[in-house]
Design a protein that fits this description.
With 425 residues, this protein is mainly alpha-helical. The protein has 22 helices and no strands.
């Protein structure tokens, strides 16, 4: 009901921009988490180890900064719409092709290419959506937008749970990859109905009037310092989310010997928690501030860790994972608004996506590290020893930063030119 109420205050173009960004990010996550849910099954089909199979997610994460850079620079030059439509077409085709991979090597290359498309989607989709959302509503819609990630995970779990019940002689993971094409095409259709970003158009007028180039804006010391800071922040954020999600289905199946259906059921429960947490926290950040909301969510995660990693029964596992994802995705719900607000107008297509994805790149070895630790010390140790430090790091880094909650995109105060890089930098 809150979503419906908030939507009523948006123009048709703003609604379409938001819906297209949400659908695009949902389908990115759907395809990514297919691998997380089924990489043990793929490992058996291709006769490779789980540790080696975990690098399917690693190469995807490693290539995301490449996509964020290529599509982001392109979007800052010609606008948001065309690069976004090219991007969703590209990753849709690559994701569909994964269904026909004949061996591990081919699938690895396809996941590498998919990472490029996935890297382009978040930064451009978030920039376009946040640029079209009124500043006073930005926090709430940021929270909903980021939960496309959890919705994609939830959708992957539900669809896989349904497909597992039907035996048609084809591995279920191949059917899932093929299925991902249809929703992605729906996202492409909606995106065609979105107008260009007015904030981008105003920034282009200012660039022409002042003759300030994007590279000049990026080279400013304040902008570079903020860029480095945001990479560190997003490294901690990505380690927090991947550290609590990627290995968890395998922990349930291999560590606690739950059935595949039971593990998927628990995944459904904790993704519902993620959606609730992100939506609520995004809205709260509009009132209490971006940093304060992030810090609170991260610190609330610390007392949940024992319940999250030491539970052994389905009920307690559901509760622990549900609560953990409420706070983890609660912190994440702030990020689309926070990163786009800290990005200068002239480089908003490039800046938030690249900082986000470089953080992902640095966190890309999370799953192989956790898998190796689980092999030698057990899954509870692997989860706890990686999650606790990261929750603390997220809180500390958020406290050290700044925010620009009320900035209006496209106006002089949101520009990256020298006159605007002082108080808000």
């Amino acid at each position: 009901m809150a979503v419906i109420s908030q939507f009523r205050g948006l123009s048709k173009d703003s609604r379409n921009a938001f819906i297209s960004a949400l659908l695009g990010w949902t389908m990115d996550a759907f395809d990514y988490f297919l691998v997380v849910l089924v990489y043990a099954d793929i490992a058996k089909d291709f006769h490779v180890s789980l540790t080696k199979m975990a690098f399917l997610t690693t190469v995807t994460l490693l290539m995301r900064p490449v996509g964020a850079f290529l599509f982001g620079v392109w979007a800052d030059r010609i606008g948001r719409r065309t690069p976004l439509m090219v991007d969703v077409s590209f990753y849709s085709i690559v994701g569909f092709a994964c269904a026909f991979a004949p061996n591990y090597a081919v699938l690895l290359v396809l996941r590498l290419l998919y990472g490029i498309g996935m890297g382009g989607e978040w930064g451009l989709g978030a920039a376009l959506a946040m640029e079209k959302i009124p500043p006073e509503k930005r926090g709430f819609f940021s929270g909903v937008l980021q939960q496309g990630y959890s919705i994609g995970y939830l959708l992957a779990a539900v669809v896989f749970l349904g497909i597992r019940q039907v035996d048609i002689g084809i591995p279920s993971w191949r059917i899932l990859f093929a299925f991902s094409l249809l929703p992605a095409l729906i996202a492409l259709y909606v995106r065609q109905r979105v107008g260009e970003s007015e904030a981008w158009e105003r920034s282009q007028d200012r660039i022409k009037a002042t003759n300030v180039k994007a590279r000049t804006v990026f080279a400013q010391p304040a902008v570079l310092r903020r860029f480095a800071y945001l990479i560190l922040l997003m490294t901690a954020f990505n380690w927090m989310s991947h550290g609590t999600q990627d290995i968890y289905p395998t922990f349930l199946k291999e560590g606690l010997h739950f059935s595949g259906d039971a593990a998927l059921g628990i995944a459904v429960v904790y993704n519902i928690g993620a959606i609730i947490g992100g939506t609520i926290s995004g809205g709260l950040s509009q009132r209490f501030g971006r940093r304060r909301t992030i810090i609170t969510a991260a610190l609330l995660g610390l007392p949940i860790v024992p319940l999250f990693v030491l539970s052994t029964t389905a009920g307690w596992l559901c509760l622990g994972s549900f609560l953990m994802q409420v706070v983890v995705q609660g912190a994440w719900g702030v990020i689309p608004a926070h990163l786009t607000e800290l990005s200068p107008d002239e480089i908003r297509g490039f800046y938030p996506g690249v900082t986000y994805q470089l953080g992902n790149c640095l966190a890309a070895f999370n799953l192989p590290i956790q898998q190796a630790l689980a092999k030698s010390h057990g899954y509870p140790f692997a989860l706890a020893v990686t999650i606790i430090p990261v929750l603390i790091a997220v809180a500390v880094l958020a406290a050290l930063g700044t925010e620009r909650r009320h900035v209006v995109f496209g106006e002089a105060e949101s520009s990256g030119v020298p006159a605007a890089s002082g108080r808000n930098g």
